[in-house]
Amino acid sequence: MPIKDQIKNFAKKLVVERPDPPTLRALVSARKPAAIHFRDDGIVPNNPHLPMLLYRGAVNLKSRRFPPDVVIDTLFDMNGWGRSWRDTVYDFVHYHSQIHEVMGVARGTARIECGGVKGRILRLKAGDVAVLPAGTGHRLIEASRDFLVVGAYPQTGTYDECTDTRERPDAIKRIAKVRKPKTDPVLGARGPLLRSWRRQAART
């Protein structure tokens, strides 16, 4: 999301009560994520080495004390993924060539196309978390009226938004240079993202 959305969300953080680390850990399910690979489809480059990771039911959002978007936002922030935003997902195909992205569903359900038109349409619901490596195409197909996503980014990398096929040659070069994050946005420094992405990179 643009900088203005991140600034707006930062302002919200200053006025809401946020769960502490022990409370957060109790709300997180240490499930193994599904790894989904997407090939370059000629339009969207996707990521040649790193799979998208999908954590089903990663966060228990039934806390009466904290709103679900606050829980997810705080979880990502605690694990080193910041510059967050709260909104829906764009309904046009786009990807980020200089940074990875995590999206956690705070409310509602949606069908989101990942990997471009030749990728997969995934049904996401509240509590699910998807980690998209740089280059992964995504767009909203349809969503419930109450659909709300919290998005965030690792500490390294620069936000950009690629939608034009003329950008492909340069975007592919940028994707190859994006550093792997130091932490898993859901499970922290020892989370499965680090092992999964390290193994995949070693195979190539």
UniProtKB/TrEMBL annotation:
Coiled-coil residues: none
TM spans (from-to): none
Protein name as it appears in the record: Uncharacterized protein YjlB
Organism annotation: Bradyrhizobium daqingense
